[in-house]
Amino acid sequence: MFKYLLLIGLVLFISCKSKKVSLAVNDEKVNISDFLEFFQPMKLPYQVTDTILKRKEPETAVINAKLFARFVPDSIVGHLFGKDLHPHLYAIGKISVPDAEQYLFVKMTAKERRALYILCFDKKNHFAAARPMLYSDNEPGTSGQAAMDNKYTLTILHQRKAADGQILYHKDAYIFNGDVGFMLILTESNEGRPKIPPLYNPIDTLPRKHKFSGDYAQDKRNIVAIRDGKDPSRFWFFIHFEKDEGTCKGELKGEARFVAPGVARYRAYSDPCAIEFTFIPEGVSLKEQGGCGVHRDIKCFFEGYFLRRKTKEKPEEHKRPKIRVNET
Question: For position 313, what pLDDT does the model report?
């Protein structure tokens, strides 16, 4: 009788341990192991098209946004959805590398904007990287698909129909690298070289009488513009940068305040982003101190040294020589 009761107890214990927790509510008892275990395993090779973005997901796949933010940086969601949209989150599945990282596939939807993300957690269950795979842009004639092969190479393909009926495509292939995240290893495309839009400085016409006001740059596409503020303790700024051959961009306009001689900080009440400016006569250095993910891509930051450009002086007008008139 005792052995029979022990057997029943063992069965009940195993069944309770194997029952997956729900991620639909922000349960403080849920840990990272529970979070990762919630995702259903998927087999390789895995391929998915953008039709998944329109598919209705079951309620059992729902992930609570606050619980999600405990394990994944909020800048991941903000990168594509901004700070005003709060997308619904759904667990799609998981691919695990034996004794190494795990890839989670998460669908995000908010109004007309939808995306399928891939998240990577390392073998210690620490968040390591993320990127959008598929997303809706509401442009007619466009389509996308993504795949992961047996070697864990991620391939993302986007196609569109040109005005002349030609099918244009752009394909990128990535592998996970522990130092840099998803590393681009291959690009293929039959599209022409895209036109680089002109860079517009929205504060260019403001006064520049302060000793630090002016234009600073690394090159034509990486600039910092500083203009006079309401008083000497403040200034307006505009930052635009393009890194990794233009694949990682950031842009921000705002008002900063001096907190020490030659040192100023940007921090707005409605923006989690914080940046420190350090001025010297020859240039300015930027250092990101807060979450600026809404204003830039995931793997690049507002940082670096920008050399001050010399102000173009107006050419002096040629003065006419005075004509001396002899008095008679």
Answer: 52
